[in-house]
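This section describes the prediction task in plain terms. A model, or a person checking by hand, is given the sequence of a single protein chain and must write out its three-dimensional structure as a string of tokens. No templates, partner chains or ligands are provided. The sample shown here is typical of the held-out split.
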Amino acid sequence: MELTQRRLRESPLFDAANVTVLGDAEDETRDVLVDVKETARPGTLSFGAAISSDAGVLGAVDLVQRNFDIADWPEDMGELFAGKAFRGAGQLFQLTLQPGNEFSTYSVRFREPYFLESPFFFDVRFSFTSREREDWDETRAGGAISLGQYFGDIWRAEVTPRVQSVEIDNIDVDAPVDAFAVEGANQVTGLAFSITRDTTNSRLFPTEGSLLQLSIEQVGVFGGDFDFTRLIAEYRKFWKVDEDFFGRATVVSLRIETGYIPQEDEAPLFERFYAGGHKTFRAFEFRGVGPRGIIAGGPNAGDVGDDPVGGDFMFLMGLEYNWPIYQDVIRGVVFMDTGTVQDDIGFDEYRVSVGVGVRIKIPFLGQAPFAFDIAVPLIKEDGDQTQFFSFDIALPF
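The expected answer:
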């Protein structure tokens, strides 16, 4: 009952939800009354901005309809502008425009969570992204379609084919050899299979349960310029170690992520594994952990440079303690991030960092909290790029 009620209340389709068991306790079979109030406006058009130590400054225009119905076409323009069309089937439609000074992304997405009220789902995504890397520019354009099935409330499996065009240009003379190796347009295709087990009790702020995801992707299965296999496993575990009088939980969480590409030197630098930054490995700059490339030209040609080129093996493990400080607005965190990114499987270049931070959640500024972290590396390697302070802030206008 508690899990059902929490899921309903966290759903963007409802403003309120209550679950009541009817009948007497001794009855062998009892009915459940589910009372919900549908939100008046499941669709939103929002304008905002974000600043992050990983991605720089971003503007944002986001059109989201969480109760979309692709079959409900308007009879006239009045229905369209009144919000009475394309609504009512629980589908998701999202159009995102995020121009930025370092990173820009433009995407459109359609998701059918229960096709014809069955346990099958599909998710269609098209995107265009551009990013200024250290000594070159990277542009991606393409799409992916995920087809999957739920197996009860815990398990799901999906198959995802993708097609992308990746262009590497504006390469500096002292960029790594790996960048010049893929200069120009590159075609990438892939077919991925993943299986997920999710027992967490909340999609917004889990306090109990775990999430396990295993995936394998064969790149080049539909042609393209590359042929290799990518293996990824991710595990997250949450323990509620305390709860105060107001129901605010203190949570310990564990995060483990590993990836491996068996074919040596087959994956281009834009398909390899990277770590470092606010979302992966704090105390290090974005992509600040891992192998560095060999300088292609200039006076230092042949030397190891500062540009990250990624690795074929990644292992990350982090532990975090999260507790309430002031109401539901401010929470504190203490964390330890560890891991490595290398060319081969191994742990001989293992890094460790520790730090503290705060999470500030202001309801009228969105569901995602502002995140500020201070971290220091305890163990690092030569060439790693460290970062004392990292943050992630998103503001609606």
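For orientation: The longest helix spans residues 2-10.
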